[in-house]
Amino acid sequence: MRVILADDSTLLHEGLVRLLAEEGHEVVAAVGDGAALVEAVALHPDVDAVVVDVRMPPTHTDEGLRAALEIRRAHPGIGVLVLSQYVEKRYATELLTSEDGGAGVGYLLKDRVVEVDEFLDALERVAAGRAAFDPEVVRRLLARSTHTDPLGRLTPRERDVLDAMAQGHANTAIAERLHVSRSAVEKHINAIFDKLELPASSGYSRRVLAVLRYLGS
């Protein structure tokens, strides 16, 4: 993959450059703020993905997120993997509810970067146009009261399947994670669509709508 990095932490910055190079990927640019990231993408619009910190100079609030959303609007074919020190529900939800419905975007906690296989898997997924959300981020987003949760009709196994969907896993990967057959996963997903009253004729991806309903409940 050809990747652009954006992070103002020198240690993380250099570590990711070295890691990606060792894995055979090309880091075409490495910058330290959101504006520089947008400029780098404009110069290299053929990159596969960008990795960006949520908080960067000058205000260290949401510059990285703003840059990520701008890149997704201007270059929807580029995958965006956002890194954050903490679970910030508003930012994760904003990524998932962007115009592209969360396709090609990911949100990982920085601690997950040390899990090299998980980080690389997430980066490959967003570069391929799929979603990749940290399990802890999903867990926090789903910490809701069951009697106010419209998803309360789902069985525990259906919630497990939807949780995996929210992380961006495809049906085959969900089957492997839950140790069930792919056909069983498909049956659970169809049951989820029925219980959430998501008709096939809605004109939108029922999978995306189910995840958005799950995270927004």
How would you sum up this structure, described in words?
- Residues 2-125 form the Response regulatory domain.
- This is Two-component system response regulator.
- Residues 147-217 form the HTH luxR-type domain.
- By secondary structure, the protein is an alpha/beta fold.
- The chain is built from ten helices and six strands, in the order E-H-E-H-E-H-E-H-E-H-E-H-H-H-H-H.
- It folds into two domains: 2-143, Response regulator (Rossmann fold, 3-Layer(aba) Sandwich), CATH 3.40.50; 156-216, Arc Repressor Mutant, subunit A, CATH 1.10.10.
- 49% of the residues lie in helices and 13% in strands.
- The longest helix has 14 residues, at 182-195.
List the helices and strands and how they pair.
Blueprint: E1 2-6, H1 10-22, E2 26-31, H2 34-43, E3 49-53, H3 63-74, E4 79-84, H4 89-96, E5 105-109, H5 116-127, E6 132-133, H6 135-141, H7 156-166, H8 171-178, H9 182-195, H10 206-216
Parallel strand pairs: 1-2, 1-3, 3-4, 4-5, 5-6
Question: Outline of this structure?
Answer:
With 217 residues, this protein is of the alpha/beta class.
Keywords:
Rossmann fold, 217 residues, 10 helices, 2 domains, six-stranded parallel β-sheet, alpha/beta, elongated, 49% helix, Arc Repressor Mutant, subunit A
Q: How are helices and strands ordered from N to C?
A: EHEHEHEHEHEHHHHH
CATH class of the largest domain: Alpha Beta
What is the makeup of the main sheet?
A: 6 strands, parallel
Poorly predicted runs: 144-148
Number of helices: 10
Mean pLDDT: 82
CATH superfamily of the largest domain: Response regulator
CATH-level-2 architecture of the largest domain: 3-Layer(aba) Sandwich
Could you estimate the helical fraction of the residues in percent? 40-55%
Oligomer: single chain
What's the β-strand tally? 6
* Gross geometry: elongated
